[in-house]
Design brief:
This protein has a domain of about 60 residues. Helix content is about 30%, strand content about 15%. The relative contact order is 0.14. The protein has about 80 residues and is α+β, with helices and mostly antiparallel strands. The radius of gyration is 16 Å and the shape is globular. Strand 1 and strand 2 form a beta hairpin.
Length: about 80
């Protein structure tokens, strides 16, 4: 898993990976990632090159497209207490 993390962290740092982290699901842990790729082929290449996949230990990815995404600004535009439901 160290090699898996080392593989993905540079992609986080340059912004290819928008968000990534473990999900604490009581039914069994897994990781969620939001990745921006130029094409499905480019994404498949990234996933197939992951050391976790190459380890042969039955890791896999499930890819689901996100046609749109709302992202908060890097700096808050207003105090949190000013937001109403």
């Amino acid at each position: 898993m160290r090699r898996h993390r080392e593989y993905w962290m540079p992609r986080v740092e340059i912004g290819v990976v928008i968000a990534m982290g473990p999900v604490a699901d009581p039914a069994g842990g897994y990781e969620l990632a939001i990745v921006e790729a130029g094409s499905r082929a480019a994404l498949d290449t990234m996933l197939q090159s992951d050391p976790a996949i190459l380890s042969g230990r039955d890791f896999s990815y499930e890819v689901l497209p996100m046609p749109t995404l709302a992202v908060r600004p890097s700096l808050p535009l207003a105090p949190v207490h000013s937001v109403t439901p």
